Amino acid sequence: MSAQGVAVLLSWLSCCGSALWRYSSNSPSYHIFSTRSTITLEYEGTSFLEWSVPGTCSVKNKSSPRTELRCSSPGVHTIRPIVVGPDSEEERNLSVQSSHICFLWYYRVISFFHNFTQVIIVWIYDPENADPSEILRNANEPSLNSIILSKQLATLGQKPTIFTSLQRKVYFPESKMKNGTWHISVPMTTDDVLKEIKGNQVAFQDCFIADVLFLLTFPLLTMPEIPDSLPITSPQGSQLILAWATCVLSSVVVVADMETFQTNDSFRTWTRIRVPPNILTDDERHNVSDVNISWDGIFFLINGILYIKTFTAFKRLGRNENLPDGGIMGISSRKWCWARHLLKSKIRSIFAVWTKSELYLGYPLLKFMKIMTTEKLKSLLNISPTDTLTIHNVEYTGHPLEIALLLSYCSAYTVNKKIYVVIYNEDTEQWMNQDFALDVPSDTFVNAHFLYSALPELVLWDKHRVYYCYHNFTETGVIQTPTEFGNLSRLSQNSTIHIIFIDYYGNVVVKMENNIMFYFKANIKDAVKLHAWTNSTLKSAVSMSSSGLMYLIYVFENGTIRPQEYPLRLEAKSVTFNSREKCPYVAFLNNIFSVFFFLDKGQNVSIWTQIVYPENVGLYIVVESYGPNILQETYQVHYEVALGYCTKTMTVTFFQNVNYEAVDDYFKLQHQNTGLLLLHMRPSDSARPCPISQKVFQIAVGCNPHKYIAVKGFNKKECLQHDFFYHIEKSYLRNKPSKNLRVKYNWKEYGCPLRLDFREKFHPLVQLYNENGYVEDVEVNFIVWEIHGRNDYSFNNTMKKSGCLNEAQTWKSMIELNKHLPLEEVWGPEFL
């Protein structure tokens, strides 16, 4: 957050509570934190004397609680406020880099609905010399400094380009700059939302521009505040309840005990969500226990009943939507965004609703389906019908097609209960009981979040402890702490766990109700306590920004809400610095530039991965896969040692080796060898200081639904389409009708007719296309048939001239063999 933003925020944060201090920079998300950066220090409290900084750093006013810090040399610098009295404030070890990244891309978006395009206006700005509106991300045009900087770099050859991470598309700016800005037009989309602005490798005064990753979806609208509507809230004194849209992280709903807030831009702007009078009682309006958000609207759970708020109505859901009229225990939606996936049968659900004994899955347009009951689950788990089994909680896994049920089991002879985990695959419709059981007291409620991984991995928590399940439930236990045996409440002044935040990079933050936070990473089994950042009396929540980074949300007593960026990477480095914990490897590299790969027949996918580590450490690269056993793989490993470091390079090639010739059931074999695999490339060992190593991706084995074939030469744009009919002489028709056949030409399906000289032989060239355009010419054999029943055509070669040893299949023989089938189905690959 900018210095100006922090100044406003601190006027709210410093109202009460214990002393603490924090810092900020002008660079969004602390992207630039270097020797060139101005670091703003803020002390919150009444005992401040002065700042203690090392000699390599300088402060603007040493005795001011709010001042500016600059460090002239890179490295880790210990900063601490000196206070009155015997107690001392905690110190931070700020990691300041020496970087040639000095400038950033600024962008704003204008949407045009008449042609469903968005124009992205881009310019370059220097965070250390920018206009306040640019730092606060609400500028409509560049400042004078930014105009000069953008034009100067443009003369040196700089030009921005937008890349889409999911569909790998590229968009270029218009040829001329306009007032120091570039204009780039992109289509509106809901499935290619992750974009990145990249520039050329051009430097100005030894400074480069950082690439920026951002989320751009189809324009979303916040629900309007309707006059005379009433607040809908959680119970008085309760913690914030938060939900965000899975693939649109900037779309968030927060329920507080005085209002409900909604945003589509991570709370840079927001509105209040209220409900019409006379629908809910006052007690019901103030008793929201859960919230969720989807394209259909915002869902509220109140007293076991599900409601939906749309732009036009507030409605109770029940038996008309195939849901129970009461007794609903919770609602859950997907946490990880998989914009693309392969689903062989039906559409996948968008959220789950459950009672103690029934599970319902929700689909678009408010369609619900009951898919399981605890009575059926007892048979699956071999549990006695007299024992008690209830649905304790439901959570979507890291797999795009799976959902996990946490089941509570207790018998008449025990005082504790066991928590079991069962995973359901929406594609195969299989239920898989996991080798896991957690014993907890009967009055304990357990939450869970699955990690962003290929194998099922999750963390669970009650009020005081966090439990881990790594590597498909083969490693389980309690997340440990240096003292108190993992009891986080004892390390946080007897507070209880409020939220656990997990990001795409494997970071895990445990936020307590009094805003103390703990930190660990995926596959790490112990946590450390982070520095105090937020006053203990302030209501706060944790969310994920559009770039996948953590930020904090504060709700104030005056009914307003405000976000604040949180430097998780810097704070984690600070608390682990004195522990001397080191990353076991130096670098982990790969060529995984997409999270989704389609693998069709005859194709393969090759992945290159490299790890560099100190000699004698003994690391290796782990390849984890989860899904049906339908792929084979080959490995090539290259190993070298130089200057005390080892380098292992591994190339993995995934492919299929299925013979479809002369099989009894072609489509059955194809179905059996089609499916979705999740793969994860990671080092064999890791630690908290390690850089990002999470590389999870999908391989969808089967046919891309966006792939299609077309005959070369036909197009749909280079002719005037009109009603065009032609007649086929009755004597040329196979069934010998009594009159000629009148046929209307289908422009939409076939495109413009192809002009040919009737004296020339015609051989159709079939070409393959996908959503990005032409792929390749189809070089395999194919079948051509006449759809209207003509029989006056002939062929250039006979079977004998073509080299056939035996009589091949013909239309005549196949029609005779399959009289019960329509013409377009009598001959196909299943008959070969």
From TrEMBL:
One BP term from GO:
flagellated sperm motility
Q: CATSPERD/E C-terminal domain: which residues?
A: 729-820
Q: So which residues are the signal peptide here?
A: 1-19
**Does the keyword Transcription regulation belong to this entry?**
no
**Which ranges carry the CATSPERE second N-terminal domain?**
102-187
A Pfam family for this UniProt protein? CATSPERE_Ig-like
Q: CATSPERE beta-propeller domain location, by residue?
A: 230-577
Q: Which cell locations does it reside in?
A: Cell projection, Cilium, Flagellum membrane
Q: Which GO terms describe its cellular component?
A: CatSper complex; sperm principal piece
| Record-given protein name | Catsper channel auxiliary subunit epsilon
Q: Which UniProt keywords apply?
A: Cell membrane, Cell projection, Cilium, Disulfide bond, Flagellum, Glycoprotein, Membrane, Signal, Transmembrane, Transmembrane helix
From which source organism is this entry?
Lynx canadensis
> What is the phylogenetic placement of the source species in the record?
Eukaryota, Metazoa, Chordata, Craniata, Vertebrata
